[in-house]
Structure formats: structure tokens, C-alpha cells
Design brief:
alpha/beta; 6-stranded mixed sheet
Amino acid sequence: MSEEDPVVNGAGDKYALVTDSFDGIVKYQDPSMKCDGAPNWRRLAGFPIYATGQPNQADLDKCVEQAVNKFDEQKAVLWVNCRQEPVVYVNGKPYSVREKNSLYSHIEMKEAFEINNLENDVSGSLKKGDGTFAFFKDTVGEQTKEKAGESTEEKGKVEKVSTLSEIFSAAAKKEPKLESSRIPVNLNKAPNDDTFDLLIRLLKGHSSAVPVIFNCQGGIARSTTASVVAGLIKEAQLETEFAKMRGVIPDNIIDGLMATKLHPPLPETTDKQNNALMKGEFPVVLELLESCEAAKDCKEQVDRLINAAAGAENIRESVVMEKMQFDVASDDWRLVLKERIMDQIERYFMLIVFSIYTKQVGPDGFNKTFKSWLDSTNYREMIAEGKSRLEWERKIPEEKIQDLKDLLNQENFDANLPAVINKINQLSYKMFNDLPRGDQKCKSMRKLAGRTLLEVIPPKLTTYLESKLGNLSNVPDFYDMVGTLSMYGKCPVEE
């Protein structure tokens, strides 16, 4: 075999199999529709929309059965695989195909046929092998981590190998209503323009009541994003269907149904939602709301759908979770997180833009593609220029900084050290008091306290800390620095 052959056994192979399951994959479980082999299996309340992680083969049939039974009057049940990476089933369990020299990150492919071709090649290699297969356990999950746990190669016996196409073909023979397709969705970025249009093309061919199931690896980010897009399309369809009923059904009944289905009351504001970022009030989104009168209602619609789909992950609030990690991350990892945060802001922004599109084009049966509609706007330029406009560093006000400097810039600074520690702690807490409680918030406050201490100490103390703790560019722990400063001038100097 040549070096390009996609075999997955042996030291020289280009690809490796990695388990789809990973520690912590299950983030949500609905006891009323539990399906153990389909992680995060759920239905959006009030919608014929389901989301799940990649199920075991036996559990895929159970998911389809639940959707068919719930919406038994419908002629079809749709299943959309949202993964960009190839998947093969070995002995009824899913494995993702990854490059052997990059086990901790997914292959990202844009076209479904490319993914299918690689799945066929890998599956063929396994079928022609010696009856065993090598695999690794996933220690990362859907998002790349700064420090991934080591994964060692394991061996298994091959009893049956199937591509994703073969799995769904077998499922369709058991349930004739099942129609499956593959529409790759970006993990953190907004879906590509073509992805939006593929979902429109798929769903507009069916009534708004036809159930659709989305899956990705864990049923977390990509399947949630696709579910929100589907919700926007189905609500546009529902608006059209209600309009056709006027003159047949009394208007007051239609208006009542529309109010219940399409304009439910917004939830009351909670402390958690007082944070502007938790509410999706990013600077570029506020710019959008200013520039488009319809954007406010569209944002509310997107927020309502995101909340309904948030069993495994709230893709609006995930920006804040990533930002809190950014606050305490090392300099190198901050670059990765910053890119991820901007991608997620873009995703949220484009969902609101897509909602604007559905309001304008949906009533005419989506007779214009999202891509061509977008070409006539400046929204691409707006998000490209605005997604980086964020308060990347929370900083203590300058007048408070000067007060702290004055307390420490004295010969007997150690007498003022307890007061400085107390002030820095109070100021750090105040700077993050809009965030939800938790370990990540505590880490963010401690990191800010450390940066503030380094900013206010005089040069002689900076030199002393460097001599004791080494390079200060990666901010040491706040209390380690406090403890070290407390010993300044109290230990004999070695000659």
C-alpha cells in the first residue's frame, strides 16, 4: 500500500480511530425520553426538533422510533448529521477518523461527498485487515483543550464495520419514514452560507410539523446550532401556514395560536442574565440592533430558541464561559481562546441575521437563497470588523490603582500590605460581580488580583519577586506573590 492509503492499523498509517464517547459527554438527560447510547438526546420543547450525540447503532433506531411515535401523523422523519469529520461504526459503536499525528483535533471537511469518500476508504481498509483494529480513547471531546490527557493505543476485534451511509440505510429499511442527509456545520464559527441554504432546501420541502433530528459528536454545539436554525425556518413556515388559514378559521383563534406558538412571553430577568454578555449584548450585536429596526425582535426570537435548545449547551452564554477561561489562561492559550470567542460571537450574530432573512424571505417560500440575500447587505463586513470589539481585559480603575501604588511606595510598605491585599480583593470581586458564581469566576478574580498587584508594586519589589518566583510575564498566583513580599527584607542576604 502507498503512504496515501487511509488504512488505520499499523505504525505507518495516516489515520487513526478515536472513540466518539469521552468523559463528561453527557450534559443533559431527559428521564422521559432516556436513550443511554445516544448522548444528550433531547427534544426542543414545543418543536418537532431533536438533537443528540452520535448514537450507537442500536440506539439510533430507538431515537427514530421515539420521533415517529411522537409525530405519527407525519409522513417523514428527517435525520441530519452535522459532523465535518468522518465517522465509521465498528461493532455497532461510532469512531471518528482523525489524522494520526493530530489525535486531539477533528478533521474538518466542508463537502459531504469528501467525508463519505474517506469513510468508505477507511471502512474498506478495516474490512480487508487482519480482523483486529487499533483505536484511541477521546480525551478532548468537541473542543480543543490546552492540556489534553494522554491516550494510549488499544486493540479490539473487528466483528462488523459500517460507514455512516450503511448505518442509515439499514435504519431506513426498518423505518421507511426515515430520510437521512449530511450537512456539515462548523463547530464554533457561524454555519457557512451554503449550510444555511442546504437546511432551508431540506426543510421547506416538508411541512413545519415534520420532525427533524440533528446529531454531531456529543450533541452539544453543532447539533444545537442546527436546531436553532431549524427552529427559525419552521417558525417562518408556521407563519405562512397560519396566514393561509385566515378566512377559514376565525382570526381570534389564529391570533391566539400565533401568540402561543410564535410570540410566547419572555422569561423574567434573573441575576445571571444581568451580565450583558450573558444576554448576548456584544458590541457588534448592539450595532446590529441600532442599524436594523427588525433586529430587536429577531434577537428575542433567537434567544428564545437558544434557550429552548440549551439542554447540553447554551450557545449564547458559551461566549462568557470561554471569556472566563480567557481571563486566567496562559498567553499562548489565550490566542486560541480569543479566536474561539470571536467565532462564537460571529455565530450568534449570524443567527440573528438569519432570523431577519426568514422574516423577509420566508413568507414568499424562501424564493431567494440566504447567500444571495446576504450579498445585498453589509452584515458580513459588520461582523468581520466588529467581532473583536470586546473588553478583553477587565482593569481596575486608574484612580484606584494610584491609591494602591501610594500605599506600597513606602519604606514600611509591609505595614500597609494587609490593607492592599484587602483592597485588591474587594476591587477584583467588584469587577466580576456580574458573572455567575463558580470556580471559573474565582479564578478570574484571582488572576486580576495578581495582575493588579504586579502593576502597583514599586520596581524594587518587582525585582525581588522576579528573583524569587522567576519570569513574571505569566502572572504568578496572587497569594504566592503576597507571601513572597511578606518576607522582603526579613531574611538575611547570602553573600
